[in-house]
Amino acid sequence: MNPLFKIFFLSVVAAQISGCSSFGKGVVEAVMEKQQAVDTRLCEVWGKSFNGIMPFLNLQKGKMKVLMVHGVGDHLPGYSTQFVEKLAKELDLPVMSAQYKNITLTDPFDTTKNLGNLRINRLLSRDRTKELMFYELTWSVITAKQKEVLAYDNSGEYSFRRAEINDLMKKFSNDTGPDPIIYLGDSREEILISFTQSFCWMTKSNWENLPNNEAQACSFNDNSLTTNIDNDQYAFISHSLGSRITIDGMQRIASLMDARNSQYKDDSIESRELVEALKRKEIPIYMMSNQLPMLQLGRKLPEVNNQKASYCRPQGDKYDQRMLSKTSIIAFSDPNDLLSYAVPRGFVEKYLDSRLCIDVTNININVATIFDAFGLGKLANPINAHIGYDTDDRVIALIAKGIGNDKTSNIVNERCRWIDTID
Q: How far is the C-alpha of 339 from the C-alpha of 290, rounded, in Å?
């Protein structure tokens, strides 16, 4: 084996063993530390200015609520802990609830189903004037059942026949590779119900009224939801496949709102006041390792597309049929992330539901360090480039305080280039 390739390959495996959070100690790290003396990693923001989460922390009425949706691979509740702690520090929210609240998600029409876990955390400023409610969706229990088909391949009966490094890579592949495939099958509807239920709980009530350690379904047909939606502010944070789930989940909710659609008539949103409240909302989606273009392959077009002007402009003939006033997609993509893609021009109009009124800001950002591989070329660990978004200080700062406003973080002003766009 080529020595350089061997060093890099071992570093990738070391990253997987340690949770893909570092390269580990050794020759590669020594080289990287030397080259990291001056951080010149790319950060380019293409799109309109945005405010981030911070301006909505001290609402006179309502709360700022954020839902995180993970991507491929088996996850356990608590996977977002490091991200939440970094976000809380950036937002100056040093007070946290002593205990999480956990809701076992289920299907309102079949409560025997386990559709994952929703963990809720409450973050506050020292003087209690600012508050953030953070919701973490763990849906992988749904796909884990089907991935048991591959369990035999991870057993000693087969794994001992592989070289050690190949065995680690195969187990990683068995954990992450099937999820996009499973999502295209029958489990897709259960995952989308899991997302829909999570959003319902976001709109349902405040901290004191949330159930804890219970399996319970949420209904949109509740008189209190309209007031909550009017007063609260919402945002989504997603990773890889989680971004597709978020978009599909919002399109599903759009169909629940559409009385003409019979597919979801049993759990449709009947309250016209709630529907009108949603039409007044602007909800951003912060997509890390965005994969929307790749995950569109082989899929049907949404039932409503190429009609943004009709649905999203006040003078449009279908303006009163929109779902939201605006959905801002802030798509983070590392060029060295082999599974991440920017959102190209024209993609939104053709492939995403017009009723969501989507605008896109593309952020090209190196979350993985690029280093000189001993003079033989530039190299970046593609694993770190795929999973490093939620620990990158610039990503955290952009989500927290946005760009192009007077609250923008210094690290963003100093290390990110902003290219404003106009219609």
A: 8
pLDDT digits (tens), the chain, 423 positions = 444 444 444 454 444 444 444 444 454 555 555 545 567 789 999 999 999 999 999 998 889 999 999 998 889 999 999 999 999 999 999 999 999 999 999 999 999 999 999 999 999 999 999 999 999 999 999 988 877 665 555 566 656 666 666 766 666 665 666 677 888 888 899 999 999 999 999 998 788 889 999 999 998 877 778 888 999 999 999 999 999 999 999 988 887 776 544 454 455 566 678 888 889 999 999 999 988 888 888 888 988 999 999 999 999 999 999 999 999 999 999 998 888 888 888 899 999 999 999 999 999 999 988 877 666 677 788 778 888 999 999 999 999 999 999 999 999 999 999 999 887
Half-sphere exposure of 174 (CA within 13 A, CB side): 18
State the angle between helix axes of 272-279 and 223-231 in degrees (0 to 180), rounded to the nearest 10. Answer: 10
pTM listed for this prediction: 0.86
Q: Which residues pair with 43 in a beta bridge?
A: 365
Is residue 79 within 8 A of residue 21, CB to CB? The reply is: no
Burial class (CB in 10 A: 0-12, 13-18, 19+), 34: exposed
Report domain extents, the chain: 1-38, 41-419
Size of the chain, expressed as the number of residues it contains: 423
